[in-house]
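Supplementary Methods. Inverse-folding protocol.

Structures were first reduced to a discrete structure-token string of length 534. This string, shown here, constituted the complete conditioning input.
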């Protein structure tokens, strides 16, 4: 069986001073790499063959040696296989020339190319380009990101084409985890043995490293921890009415009795910054509103808390800040809440939302019906977006949020007359709230803040050193205060119940603030209208 987990692609141009191709590959293999591709585009045939024979000596079984493009060099050097691009020798011809048990990899960039290569009998697919890379000049439309890779994986799954995928293009230690999570197949929710992707290919992350052994070891550790996470996915909650009633009360008590003051970092709609800051304070958390690029890393690392991203009013600087802060939050296990405000209103909003979702693994995505439908490409449902408001009802809202949660591997909230929540396995509906909320500017944005505040304490006690390979997403923090699913339910319910209380007391449409949140813990628990959907 071929181990594609960490696939090394060579590049002599990337070697640091004093290093050689052979010494770097030797150290990578010693650290645990099980497959190496010799990719030296500019070498004459004689030198390429010499390099191939040298690497063949280093890459002893079970390590596989693959030659890029050159079937002849692969055969003469005794390599295990060849990797072909879309413009190289046709796969059928390479199979005719090569040995019967040779490995044949094919580079693909689209669903159509992937399906064709799988049906033609390729051994594995090299899918990309995932991220911008310094080793090639890649047109923007060829950089497909984790979500593009996932789309290819999911279509192959749908067609029943079982073939290993190796994701390639710009992968390094800073984006490896996002790559792995972002490419994970929807099938993991129905098939616990499903793997996605099979492997990641790296070039400069090892070839340019001063210490290739340590660089390889770090990457492999992150991959192994991700695989551990896949094996420990929780089954759907059983007896949700009983379990949730008990756990919600415990979580609510722990939140309002917390001893720390979590920092809630907002990169948000400028219209609602003041309201969201006051709501954060009302929850006993500390707000900060900043999109200054130079302080993103410092703010994210400052203390336990949460990052809230809101697409309401944005410019290029704010988009860069969202991606930068989100990537740093992922690396330290800090929850990230994303509100794709008005994402269906313009092509630019859809483009920027896609860019953000490619770069950052979200913990919770919250939107109205039109926004969630737009993200999930459920345009046929009849929901359209007018500015930042929702117009129309989606069909099968429970399946919409479940599908979206599986697509993005996070908790998804769809707000409206009825609020729908899913982590990809369970689906819950919330029937609290009042219709007047939809007429208050920023009420949806404040819901994102509320979710962020409750989610912030899921990070408390989280051992970042022993869980360095795990992102803080829906499934992997169940041991801490009940996890983000409970936090999300309470974040929404607290505002909804507060709105009901205000209405009962005939305070009109005043905004939820410190005074209206007083005494809410018991009120929320006693009045929450929650039901599970199978």
């Amino acid at each position: 069986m071929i181990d594609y987990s960490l696939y090394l692609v060579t590049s002599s141009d990337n070697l640091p001073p004093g290093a050689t191709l052979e010494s770097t590959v030797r150290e990578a293999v010693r650290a645990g790499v099980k497959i190496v591709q010799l990719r030296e585009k500019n070498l004459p045939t004689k030198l390429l063959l010499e390099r191939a024979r040298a690497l063949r000596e280093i890459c002893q079984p079970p390590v596989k040696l693959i030659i890029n493009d050159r079937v002849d060099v692969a055969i003469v050097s005794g390599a295990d296989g060849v990797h072909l691009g879309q413009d190289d020798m046709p796969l059928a011809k390479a199979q005719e020339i090569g040995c019967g048990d040779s490995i044949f990899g094919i580079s693909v960039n689209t669903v159509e190319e992937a399906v064709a290569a799988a049906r033609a009998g390729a051994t594995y697919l090299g899918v990309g380009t995932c991220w911008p890379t310094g080793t090639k000049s890649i047109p923007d439309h060829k950089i497909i990101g984790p979500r593009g890779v996932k789309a290819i994986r999911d279509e192959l799954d749908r067609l029943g084409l079982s073939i290993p995928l190796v994701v390639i293009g710009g992968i390094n230690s800073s984006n490896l985890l996002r790559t792995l999570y972002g490419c994970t197949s929807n099938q993991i929710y129905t098939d616990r043995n499903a793997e996605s992707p099979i492997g990641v290919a790296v070039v400069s992350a090892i070839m340019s490293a001063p210490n290739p052994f340590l660089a390889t070891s770090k990457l492999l550790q992150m991959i192994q921890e991700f695989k551990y996470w896949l094996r420990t996915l929780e089954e759907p909650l059983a007896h949700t009415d009983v379990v949730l009633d008990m756990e919600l009360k415990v979580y609510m008590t722990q939140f309002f009795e917390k001893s720390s003051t979590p920092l809630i970092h907002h990169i948000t709609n400028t219209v609602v910054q003041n309201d969201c800051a006051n709501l954060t304070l009302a929850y006993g958390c500390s707000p900060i509103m900043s999109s200054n690029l130079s302080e993103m890393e410092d703010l994210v690392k400052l203390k336990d808390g949460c990052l809230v991203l809101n697409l309401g009013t944005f410019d290029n600087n704010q988009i860069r800040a969202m991606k930068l802060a989100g990537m740093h939050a992922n690396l330290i296990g800090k929850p990230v809440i994303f509100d794709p405000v008005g994402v269906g209103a313009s092509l630019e909003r859809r483009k920027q939302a896609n860019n953000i979702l490619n770069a950052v693994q979200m913990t919770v995505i919250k939107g109205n019906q039109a926004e969630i439908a737009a993200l999930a490409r459920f345009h046929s449902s009849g929901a359209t977006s007018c500015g930042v408001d929702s117009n129309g009802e989606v069909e099968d809202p429970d399946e919409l949020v479940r599908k979206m949660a599986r697509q993005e591997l996070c908790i998804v909230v769809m707000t409206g007359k009825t609020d729908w929540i899913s982590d990809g396995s369970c689906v819950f509906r919330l029937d609290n709230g009042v219709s007047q909320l939809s007429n208050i500017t920023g009420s949806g944005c404040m819901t994102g803040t509320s979710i962020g505040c409750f989610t912030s304490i899921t990070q408390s006690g989280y051992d970042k050193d022993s869980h360095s390979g795990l992102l803080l997403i829906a499934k992997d923090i169940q041991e801490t205060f009940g996890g983000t699913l409970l936090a999300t339910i309470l974040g929404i319910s607290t505002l909804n119940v507060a709105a009901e209380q205000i209405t009962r007391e005939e305070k009109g449409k005043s905004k939820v603030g410190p005074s209206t949140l007083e005494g809410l813990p018991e009120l929320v628990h006693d009045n929450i209208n929650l039901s599970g959907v199978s």
